[in-house]
Amino acid sequence: MAAAEQRIDAARAALLVMDVQQGIVARFGEAESALLQPLSDAIATAREAGALVVYVRVAFRAGAPESS
What we know:
By secondary structure, the chain is of the alpha+beta class. 32% of the residues lie in helices and 12% in strands. It is built from two helices and two strands; from the N terminus they run E-H-H-E. The longest helix has 18 residues, at 32-49. The protein is extended and about 45 Å long. The model has no long low-confidence stretch (mean pLDDT 86).
C-alpha cells in the first residue's frame, strides 16, 4: 500500500499533546495563536475520529533534581 493510501485506525491511535505549558507557549509571543489553533483543531479531529487524546504533563520536584 502506498503512503498516500495508508489509513490510521482511530480505535488504535492516540494523539499525544506535549509541551503545551505556559513557559513554553509564551516563548511564541504573537505567534502563540499560530501554534494553538492548529493544535486545537488536531485535538478536535482526533476526538471526532474516536482516537485517544493524551495530555503529557512534565513536572519536577522542588529544585528539579530530575533534570540534568
